[in-house]
Design a protein that fits this description.
The chain is of the alpha+beta class. About 15% of the residues lie in helices and about 30% in strands. It contains three helices and 15 strands. The chain has helices spanning about 1-25, 75-80, 175-185, and strands spanning about 45-50, 60-65, 85, 95, 100, 105-110, 115, 130-135, 150-155, 165-170, 185-190, 195-200, 210-215, 215-220, 235-240. The strands form four sheets. A six-stranded mixed sheet has the order 5-10-9-15-13-14, sandwiched between helices. A five-stranded mixed sheet has the order 2-1-8-6-7. The protein has a two-stranded antiparallel sheet with strand order 3-4. InterPro entries: Transcobalamin-like_C. It comes from Paenibacillus oralis. This is Transcobalamin-like C-terminal domain-containing protein.
């Protein structure tokens, strides 16, 4: 229970981001009414796309509904979600809603409860199909693998909202704050690894500074050596001095 509470601050923001992204994201053009397949009770069939963070990103779950269009593929549904970013070669999901994963985790895709590798994303969908995008360990097909994780949140504030990013790292014993920052690929530390130089390529000007917190508690300059616990939330926020 305590571990779940520690995640609430970061996850409330994360869930809000998913909600906003889903509401604003592009969708597949709605077919003409004559093209919609109707069930016996007169309701239109649709395609459901579910985003599920599983045990790695607890409480993150979002559903999108598309009106069925003849000829639509799994790949087109993923691309039309507005929150899923694919790799350049379309061989994998790069991120979902600004959430990226460490090298031991990946986004999996299942169609009607069956694992669907990227080579099969050209598969045509049928009315009523369900697509699941979920977090899994690399090489695993388990929908809800047992695993603790760490969450890194980057918040650029109102002056730089484009810096908003999330990084999920599979928990390893003895992982420090510094380890998490380095492994995220988002944070540049100085040569001695004592303080943050830039985040996601952004260097603060003379009126700004990075503030580092763990579970909403501000860290001192020596806090980078702090060992993290499962489900800890590390946050980097850009503030005015």
């Amino acid at each position: 229970m305590r571990n779940r509470l520690k995640w609430l601050a970061g996850l409330v923001i994360l869930m809000a981001f998913f909600t906003a992204a889903c509401a604003d994201g592009g969708t597949i053009d709605k077919p003409d009414p004559s093209e919609e397949l109707q069930s016996e009770d007169g309701e239109a069939h649709d395609i459901t796309l579910t985003i599920d963070g599983g045990t790695f990103i607890p409480d993150v779950k979002r559903k999108l509904h598309f009106d069925y269009t003849e000829g639509i593929t799994v790949l087109q549904a993923l691309e039309s979600s507005g929150i899923i970013e694919l790799a350049e070669d379309r061989s994998k999901i790069q991120s979902v809603g600004a959430v990226s994963l460490d090298s031991t985790l990946e986004w999996g895709v299942r169609l009607n409860d069956r694992e669907l590798p990227s080579g099969d994303w050209a598969k045509l969908l049928k009315a009523g199909d369900n697509i699941l995008v979920y977090v899994k360990t690399v090489g695993s097909a388990a929908v809800s693998p047992n695993g603790a994780s760490l969450l890194l949140t980057v918040n650029g504030g109102s002056q730089n909202p484009q810096l908003k990013r999330y990084f999920v790292h599979q928990y390893n014993e003895n992982t420090t704050v510094r380890d998490l920052l380095k492994r995220s690929g988002l944070v540049e530390l100085n040569k001695t690894g004592q303080y943050i130089v830039s985040v996601n390529g952004y260097r603060p000007d003379d009126t700004e500074a990075w503030v580092l917190k763990v579970n909403q508690k501000k860290l001192l300059s020596t806090g980078l050596d702090m060992r993290l616990k499962p489900q800890d939330n590390v946050e980097i926020t850009l503030v005015r001095k």
